[in-house]
Design goal:
The protein folds into 2 domains: 311 residues, no CATH class; 220 residues, Methane Monooxygenase Hydroxylase, Chain G, domain 1. The protein is 79% helix and 0% strand. The chain is built from 27 helices and no strands. α4 runs parallel beside α13 and α5 crosses α14.
Amino acid sequence: MKDSSSPVALMLLFAGGLCIFLYGIRILSSGLKKASGERVRGLISRVTGNRLYGICAGALASVIVQSSSTIVATLVGLVQSGLMNSTQSLAVILGAEIGTTAMAQLVAFRLHDYALVIFASGFLLNTLSRKEPLRFAGEALSGFGLLFYGLKLMSEATTPLQLNPGFLALQHYLDTPVLGIAAGMAITALMHSSAAFIGIVITLAQHGTLDLEGGILLLLGANIGTCITGVMASTGMHRAAKRVALAQIMFNVAGVLIVLPFVHQFAELIRFISPSGGGVAFEVPRQIANAHTALNLLMALCVLPLLSLFDSILNRILPDDPKEQRLLPSVWYLRESALTTPLLAISYAKAEVARMGRIAERMVHAALNPFVSSAPGADMVFSDLSVVSGMLMREEKLDFLKRRITGYLIAIVRTGLNERESKEVFALMNIIRDLESIGDVIEKLLGKFLEVKNELTCELSEEGKMELMELHNLVSRELDQLVLSLNDLDAVKAAVVLQFDERFRQLAARAESEHLKRVIHLHEAEITHDIHMELVKVLKQIHHYSQSICGSIFVS
């Protein structure tokens, strides 16, 4: 293209710079996430009722992943899985909105001229380093360089717009509150990144094509537009998770309502506290970055004392659904107040473990259905759920209960126990590990083979189904008896479970032998071989864990 200043050329240059900028943010975020591992999620999940800690955790996590939307999506997942309640998430959301302003501050430093040097340094560090932390740091640094190189290209594309009449007219429209906020909201929602949009805003300001007032209005819109990610993450989830996404919308809308009537006064305040000198190209971008930080700090300061009110409003708008509550992971019997009395606390733990056994029992009863029936079927308790959805829901409950009961048992140990109590506690720890493992093997079976089974050109043979059903019925009866023994860790009832072992071995050996005979003569049996053998393997594993649990009951 000969004329590099033509509208098409400038548009392509801006689009290319934007793509590089967005890719740089992705690489930067990826490197920082890898370097921090699961610490970000762990940091957020440990938030309790301390609002100050919640804000600090949210801000730090948002700085690490460079996205408040990602933090809100993480909160949605944590609330959905029961590791946090929606009330605890509110302060974290405020902190995340503050942390996301770090990107705007970095962009305003105008490191464009060093972009390729930064990228090359990060690339070499990532390529040549043998240590994993250094490689991840190099990846983040290379993303940082790409980010600024993208901004440089966008800057070059917007330079000719300074005197463009059409663009100057557009700036006049953006100074209109409704249009400015709507533009910021729409573009941010489309880009799914407020950081990217604010980078564009600062780039425009560097060439005098955008003033501070217009930039503030775009920032206000961007704060609302960034909520789209949380809304999408909460789609299809329970009401507690949806309240997290709604909270972000309410907070950011509140911030807009607080600042909007005083945009000009707010702009004057930002000009007063921002450094002067260096011309418009330096002053306005820095002022916009400072306005972004001040806006989110102001919102946090105004909303923080009113979190209880916001929590009450959220619960009125989206109250808990009793039906949904039954699907959520929760504890029924554990009482922190009982920890001072070990004998009582252990009895509560036993009750929760017995409940865990009933959950695993229902999973086992349903495990074979998706592989021997063409119909999806309905869950035995929750008729609105399919058989598979019911099993996955219970697997989440088993994971949750394992964590909570284990933590409770460790707290009991720390109070000081006699020898008998210690044996009971460690037996319970082994039992919950095995019960959770039963859920894991069923979940892996569903994840690995259910889709494969649905894509096969034929089903399991009728003879194979009968053999598997006979083996499954035995394992199901074994779990029924096991649950009875878990109610009070009854060794007599557990001994009955051990009597299933010989019969199970016989049936498993016959199922494998008969299937291999069919493989030789039937092409259909060869096609379904992997699934048939995997089902036998899973039933063997469930049987093994049942027998192991009985051994733990005898030890207690």
